[in-house]
Amino acid sequence: MTAQSPSGGTAPPGSTVTITISGGNVPVQSVVGDSQATATQILTQAGFQVSVTPGSGPAQYANGTVFSQQPASGTAPKGSTVTIYVQNGASPTGSPSAPASQTTNPTTNPTPPASGGVLGIGF
User: Fold this and answer.
1) Most CB atoms closer than 10 Å: which of 5, 14, 69, 80?
2) How confident is the model at residue 7 (pLDDT cuts 50, 70, 90)?
3) What domain range is 49 assigned to?
4) How many CB atoms lie within 10 A of CB 48?
5) What span, in angstroms and rounded, lies between the C-alpha atoms of 109 and 90?
6) Which pLDDT does position 120 carry in this prediction?
């Protein structure tokens, strides 16, 4: 029981007494897109424990931002754990990032002439 109306004592015979019984479950708010600090605050204020798992999510999420959570939505027992997955920019285990392709634009990065001449002075 989480609440009672009237709030204690005795009630006259035949009167109505309302009691509220907690089912134990509370809504799980989505914190995807929030910072780790904000997400943790929201979830703990809702009555959950928070487990933080760093990882590499979609590129649209900045470092320190929640990119996934479990459970994602619905309800969960108050006091249970919600796991948040926080972008840390690292590659997922077993999937190293491919190096960025590097190209040289010949008009902006010219190779000096082998003869030691002067390049690009308009002669």
Assistant:
1) 69
2) confident
3) 26-87
4) 21
5) 31
6) 52
